[in-house]
From TrEMBL:
Organism this protein belongs to: Sedimenticola selenatireducens
Entry keyword Flavoprotein: yes
Protein's name in the database: NAD(P)/FAD-dependent oxidoreductase
Location of the NADH-rubredoxin oxidoreductase C-terminal domain: 322-371
Keywords for this protein: FAD, Flavoprotein
Family: Belongs to the FAD-dependent oxidoreductase family.
NCBIfam families per UniProt: PhenlGlyoxDHPadH (NF045765)
Gene3D superfamilies: 3.30.390.30, FAD/NAD(P)-binding domain
């Protein structure tokens, strides 16, 4: 039986931050990291750029082999958890190997959602979640002329743009009436959609796919309105779901994801969870939510590790606040916090259609609740901290509305501790 003090399942941002934090406190205990990817750790945010050829798959690692060697960390690649025996504190890997642990962190990420569209499972299609997915998509794109992308979320939009950069004629099919729902309101989304249209991408919003048919060298997609479109390549980007199959038979509580407290502890003894699998406290209301964003995965990984290593400086999780920075066709959009006002919010919006600029600020009791912008100079990290720290903007409200970047940075420089 193999044995390790800390067992970390997953080597993306949550898992890597956990490694770092544990080693700051515990320099000698054994740490074993298991990742189903055969490669050294990389960020999934780089994958669209691998598709377009802008990034080399072999030059985008987050941590190289020497990093793990120098920290005396046992890295197991190309393997994954398939079962947990919590009573005996041991896991079984897909390879058949078993490991005993004292403390276990589940940071196993998410898998693509494949919608139950008739004919899709029999068709040849791509997803974009792993490096191998990106390499496969890039290879196919090299011989294709046309592409259909199902879904106008971040993965679909990034994928569509980079397929366009690779020279393909691209059509996006989205069942919602706008792109990037959940990140931007309809006015901001229309600015982004216009940029895609201007760069030759066809946008079919409010369109539901009812059938997919594989043809000889192409794929035909039939829409609910009866229209059909055909392309050489099909990318399915309709969302992700947490990977949880290894939890069968455990006492770990699950709703949409693994339920955790503000220290990232599960209900099961000696088991924590962080990142895309964790369903944790929401910042705005008393419930637990799936966040699925990179900065939050880092935060959760750090908190889990600090609790696991009994770091006395641990500050419990304050709750998830969405933060996304999105670059498209040389333009930039950010969305931090809430994107839609409620009955208690004060909404201030500035729109400059001629210059494709947009700014929306949401305040509540003179505290920032959310901010979204397109082609405005902005620091998403500062805005994120203003929300998390509940900074009172009363004395600088007018200045913040007029110059959110400069005012926000000045506030943070005086309050950051």
């Amino acid at each position: 039986m193999n044995s390790t003090h800390y067992l970390i399942a997953g080597a993306s941002h949550a898992g890597l931050e956990a490694i770092h934090r544990i080693r700051l406190i515990d320099e000698t205990a054994t740490i074993t990291v298991v990742t189903r990817d055969a490669r050294l750790p990389y960020s999934p945010t780089i994958l669209p750029y691998v598709v377009s050829g802008q990034s080399d798959p072999d030059r985008v690692v987050l941590r190289n082999a020497d990093y793990f060697k120098n920290l005396n960390i046992n890295l197991i690649t190309g393997d994954e958890l398939v079962a947990i025996d919590e009573a005996n504190k041991q896991v079984t890997l897909q390879s058949g190997d078993q490991w005993h642990y004292e403390k276990l962190l589940l940071a196993t990420g998410a898998d693509p959602i494949i919608p139950p569209i008739p004919g899709l499972s029999e068709a040849s299609f791509h997803v974009l979640r792993t490096m191998q997915d990106a390499i496969n998509l890039r290879t196919h794109a090299g011989s294709a002329k046309t592409a259909i992308v199902l879904g106008a979320g971040l993965i679909g939009m990034h994928g569509a743009e980079n397929l366009r950069h690779a020279g393909l004629d691209v059509t996006i099919v989205e069942m919602c009436d706008q792109v990037l729902p959940g990140y931007f309101d309809t006015r901001a989304a229309s600015v982004i959609q216009t940029a895609f249209n201007s760069n030759g991408i066809t946008m079919l919003m409010g369109s539901r796919v009812v059938k997919v048919e594989q043809q000889a060298q192409s794929c035909q997609v039939t829409l609910e309105n009866g229209n059909s479109i055909t392309a050489d390549l099909l990318l399915v980007a309709t969302g992700v779901k947490p990977k949880l199959d290894y939890l069968k038979g455990t006492s770990v509580q699950v709703e949409e994801g693994i339920l955790v407290d503000r220290n990232m502890r599960t209900d099961a003894p000696a088991i924590w969870a962080a990142g895309d699998v964790a369903q944790a406290a929401d910042f705005y209301q008393d419930k637990k939510v799936m966040m699925g964003i990179l900065p939050d995965a880092v935060t959760q990984g750090a908190i889990a590790a600090m609790d696991m290593s009994e770091d006395y400086t641990l500050q419990p999780y304050t709750g998830g606040v969405p933060i996304n920075t999105y670059t498209f066709f040389g333009q930039q959009a950010i969305s931090v916090g809430q994107c839609m006002a409620d009955d208690q919010s004060e909404e201030l919006t500035q729109v400059d259609d001629d210059n494709h600029r947009y700014l929306k600020i949401l305040l509540k009791d003179n505290q920032l609740q959310g901010i979204s912008s397109i082609n405005e100079e902005m620091d998403a990290g500062v805005m994120w901290q203003l929300i998390l720290r509940k900074i009172d903007l009363t004395s600088v409200k007018d200045a913040f509305i007029a110059r959110p970047l400069e005012t926000g940075r000045a506030l943070m420089s005086s309050t950051w501790r």
